[in-house]
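Structure catalogue
Derive tokens from sequence
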Amino acid sequence: MQSIPPNPIPSIAAGLVMIFLAVLILPFKVRKVEENLEIFFLIMGILAITISGMWSKEIIINAIKDPVSIGGTPIGIFQVVLIAGLFIHFYNEKIYRGIVNIMNKLGLKIFVFLMIITLGLLSSLMSVIVAAVLLSEIVAAMPVSWESKVKITVVTCFAVGLGAALTPVGEPLATIAISKLSGPPYHADFFFLFRLLADLIVPGIIAMAILGAYWVSKEGDVKAEIPEYGETLRTVVMRAVKVYAFVSALVLLGHGLTPLVIWYFTKIPPSVLFWVNMISAILDNATLTAAEIAPELTLLQIKSALIGLLVSGGMLIPGNIPNIVSAGRLRIKSGEWARIGVPLGLVMMFVYFIAVNFPY
């Protein structure tokens, strides 16, 4: 991998800033971009890598392998999305019947509350990918308006994104953080992040569950029926391919924008970095974790940086794997997600900023 110069190079910095702004703005302003996010992010990733001069065999391999291999394991995002999609395609009636029966027995409000808490907490043990696939099919079977489906999906993805950070099994961010802190002085083990973040994350998951139950309660007391399954085999396969392309694009984009992170973001005071980390809404938070987290930081600095990345990751579709998987399955547009995710994320950021910096 190419080494990054210690001091900013103005021409490279300017080019990367333009790419950053394009990624932030165009998906909401240009319909063609919104409808082809995977291609757009792939182009931006290639441009970012080219401008920063970061092309290497290692980066190319990572972009190819990351969607199909997480943390060195033989299974990744692409396989889970494809296998789960095929399973649901062939057994959708039985799956939906089971979901609908549970939903009708518990009532929609209680069902949504328990679903969000369960997926949020278990995402740290079964990974965010599985949680996102389950969420997508559950929401597809809900007898609620499209607006409510979008709200429930977004709020649950916030919960899943938070919960997955409690162990290194849940998502790459946690795996990287544990790896970088495994030596002195922290000697981080499997439960290090749980001990560090659980007092903040668990209440956040519960708050998301309460909010989701409140939103769905406005639909009234409705009975769920087995929905019509409209996915073709080609749609199932293409969705997995699109997720693969999206994750590969984020790998390239994250590596390409790394000079900006090294030159500027890592030099920002922790209290300010908490807010600057909202760039995680469009960038791979694992890349930012790799750049920001180090054993030289205090526990307060580590906690502040990680919480900022986790919360902001829920704001926009590219911010987190659960967002990408769920939005792809349910066909949620970038603007629809942002209308819920951005204001909710800003409120959560403010609450967490107070909780982290003024705990008593």
User: Anything to note?
Assistant: The chain has 16 helices and no strands.
